[in-house]
């Protein structure tokens, strides 16, 4: 891409009145250069079986084309029409809750042949209509696609075929999954029970892994159809989302993004986050780093909040700060959900750039500033290439397995992932994400491994070799405990990587009034407290960084560091405070030569950088706070793009609340 995309989702079919021309006029005033349409229009485009009406799509494309605004077309398959359910009720997904009932979106069985027949027909009809239009630059497959817990008879039959392929001998399945327990042993494939009732974590986790493969297959199937029609210069994307906690939080449990992204030409993402006094930028950064890592390339932000929902109305300056935060992570677009605030139904108060009165407001006016700046110097920021030396290893399988064998009811895998990621973010350490299939782990100088509970032996061997050959690694509790089938190892724990970690343990518990001692961290007494999980570590070759401070557990190590080959491996055997984790990470970063000038600043000053199309370094300094911050510019002399003036190394800069500077270095 040669320019940044700045845009909105636009729903002509939701409008209470005809104002398309007025909307386009206001879009042009805000320098909006792209809209996303059609993704939720199935019942409008096909009001009855085989009856098609493209007026909403046609009129929007016609007007956008004349206005020179690009269009992204979404396939409408995530929200099915009433007639389809009335004629073919089997298209609704059967889940653990029973047969689905029509009403909500994303309620269908994505494997159902009848659903796929009608979905293919509507995709082809739309593609025939729009693919040759010159303003159409790309296509979005479905919307935030997941498996929707589909688990009807057809899905379970496919699961049995999947298992028979993995375990040709049924006895191997029984032995590997431990199905003799409580007489769950399956002695004939014909006797395979309804998997929704299983109490066996290995079988349950394998079914969820299988369900994630359904998403890969579904998106790949759609991509194949779209590819028959699209022009060479049109892209195919998907708007991935994350575990939802009222905002985008962690690894998505119902999609393996790394696998699902393989059919796309460019990855896309939806990122929503707290704002006002709770705005930190961490969700923007997490979602961006994750999505950029899927294809090791730039990505599209297809949805993010404008005014948003409940307390998401941004303070002055925050919308602009957020927009450039997306770009600083490697995004090539910022697109709001959505243009206007709708007047009926479920998302009435999930507000867009415009409120219900369609008039100018402070959020829209700030969007005009963003659009102006994207136009003015966006060519210096587009297709930013990141060069990170730190990676976080994430695993859908570990996430699922820990759900089956949770540490505590209020604490899961993503809590550990974000615990580690957020501290690195606040210390201005750029990160990529990798998974168990990543072939390039050796290129990183430091790998973070949060709660890798479920993991194949070959990956653990790779991690041993990585450290032995000079890599640095930080591993947390609940790692390397089971194999890929959630079968607990009977070797010393952590399995296999105890070699590079230099520790072992065979007991663990939930801490109660347990603190840390024996370290030199500069933290308060309260910050010394550990929570949620603790393992009683016994070093073999590792040195102890911290012990447990407790009358019964005081002889056990809590945090260790081990030299192995020419590398170093650190193990954190308990959930510590953020302050302790930060101290541990500072030590690791210094040992691995990753503690540089950018680590002199911490949150709320966030520093991001990358290389633009001219191979010049672009550096962002963000102030994520309501207070003015005085900083010293520490990079090479360059041009501060927002003011178009020279800035020199060592120059003092006053950052206003929720503001930023962007510098393109001269060399």
Automatic annotation (TrEMBL):
The organism's place on the tree of life at top rank: Bacteria
Enzyme class: hydrolase
Enzyme Commission number(s) of this protein: 3.2.1.23
Reactions listed under catalytic activity: Hydrolysis of terminal non-reducing beta-D-galactose residues in beta-D-galactosides
This protein's UniProt keywords: Glycosidase, Hydrolase, Metal-binding, Zinc
Pfam family, one: Glyco_hydro_42M
Keyword rRNA processing: no
Residue ranges of every copy of the Beta-galactosidase trimerisation domain listed in the record: 389-591
Presence of the UniProt keyword rRNA-binding in the record: no
Coiled-coil region list: none
GO MF term list: beta-galactosidase activity
Residues annotated as domain Glycoside hydrolase family 42 N-terminal: 10-376
Recorded family membership: Belongs to the glycosyl hydrolase 42 family.
Protein name: beta-galactosidase
């Amino acid at each position: 891409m040669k320019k940044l995309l700045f845009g909105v989702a636009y729903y002509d079919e939701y409008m209470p009145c005809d104002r398309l021309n007025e909307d386009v006029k206001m879009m042009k005033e805000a320098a909006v250069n792209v809209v996303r349409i059609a993704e939720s229009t199935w019942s409008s485009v096909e009001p009855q079986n085989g009856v098609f009406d493209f007026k909403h799509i046609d009129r929007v494309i016609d007007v956008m084309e004349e206005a020179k605004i690009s269009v992204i077309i979404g396939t409408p398959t995530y929200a099915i029409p009433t007639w389809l359910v009335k004629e073919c009720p089997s298209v609704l997904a059967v889940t653990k809750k029973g047969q689905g009932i029509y009403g909500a979106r994303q309620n269908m069985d994505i494997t159902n042949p009848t659903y796929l027949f009608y979905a293919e027909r509507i995709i082809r009809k739309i593609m025939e209509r729009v693919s040759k239009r010159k303003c159409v630059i790309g296509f979005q497959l479905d919307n935030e696609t997941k498996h929707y817990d589909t688990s009807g008879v057809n899905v379970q039959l496919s699961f049995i075929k999947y298992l028979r392929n993995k375990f040709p001998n049924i006895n191997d399945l029984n032995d590997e999954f431990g199905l003799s327990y409580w007489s769950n042993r399956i002695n004939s494939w014909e006797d395979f029970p309804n998997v929704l009732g299983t109490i066996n974590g290995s079988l349950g986790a394998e079914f969820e892994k299988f369900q994630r493969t359904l998403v890969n297959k579904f998106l790949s199937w759609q991509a194949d159809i779209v590819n028959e029609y699209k022009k060479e210069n049109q892209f195919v994307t998907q708007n991935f989302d994350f575990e939802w906690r009222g905002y985008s939080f962690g690894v998505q449990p119902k999609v393996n993004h790394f696998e699902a992204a393989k059919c796309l030409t460019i990855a896309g993402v939806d990122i929503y986050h707290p704002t006002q006094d709770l705005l930190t930028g961490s969700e923007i950064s997490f979602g961006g780093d994750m999505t950029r890592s899927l294809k090791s390339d730039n990505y599209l932000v297809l949805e993010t909040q404008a005014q948003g929902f409940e307390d998401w109305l941004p303070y002055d300056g925050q919308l602009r700060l957020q927009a450039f935060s997306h770009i600083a992570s490697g995004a090539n677009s910022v697109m709001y959900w959505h243009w206007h605030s709708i007047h009926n139904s479920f998302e009435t108060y999930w507000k867009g750039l415009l409120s219900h009165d369609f008039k100018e407001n402070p959020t829209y006016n700030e969007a005009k500033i963003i659009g102006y700046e994207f136009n003015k110097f966006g060519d210096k920021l587009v297709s930013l290439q990141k060069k990170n030396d730190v990676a976080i290893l994430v695993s859908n399988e570990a996430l699922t397995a820990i759900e089956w064998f949770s540490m505590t009811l209020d604490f899961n895998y993503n809590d550990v992932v974000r615990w580690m990621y957020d501290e690195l973010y606040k210390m201005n350490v750029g990160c990529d994400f990798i998974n168990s299939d990543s072939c390039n782990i050796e290129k990183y100088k430091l790998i973070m491994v949060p709660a890798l509970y479920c993991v194949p032996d070959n990956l653990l061997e790779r991690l041993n070799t990585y450290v032995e050959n000079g890599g640095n690694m930080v591993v947390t509790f609940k790692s390397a405990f089971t194999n890929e089938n959630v079968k607990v190892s009977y070797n010393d724990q952590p399995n296999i990587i105890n070699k590079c970690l230099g520790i072992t343990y065979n007991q663990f518990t939930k801490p109660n009034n347990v603190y840390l001692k024996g370290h030199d961290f500069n933290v308060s007494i309260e910050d010394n407290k550990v929570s949620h999980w603790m393992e009683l570590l016994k070093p073999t070759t590792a040195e102890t960084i911290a012990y447990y401070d407790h009358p019964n557990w005081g002889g056990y190590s809590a945090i260790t560091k081990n030299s192995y080959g020419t590398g170093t491996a650190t193990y954190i055997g308990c959930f510590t405070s953020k302050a302790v984790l930060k101290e541990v990470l500072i030590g690791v970063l210094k040992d691995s030569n990753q503690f540089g000038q950018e680590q002199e600043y911490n949150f709320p000053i966030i520093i991001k950088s990358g290389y633009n199309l001219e191979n010049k370094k672009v550096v962002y300094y963000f102030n994520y706070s309501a207070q003015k911050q005085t900083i010293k510019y520490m990079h090479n002399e360059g041009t501060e793009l927002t003011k178009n003036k020279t800035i020199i190394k060592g120059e003092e800069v006053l950052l206003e609340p929720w503001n930023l500077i962007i510098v393109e270095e001269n060399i």
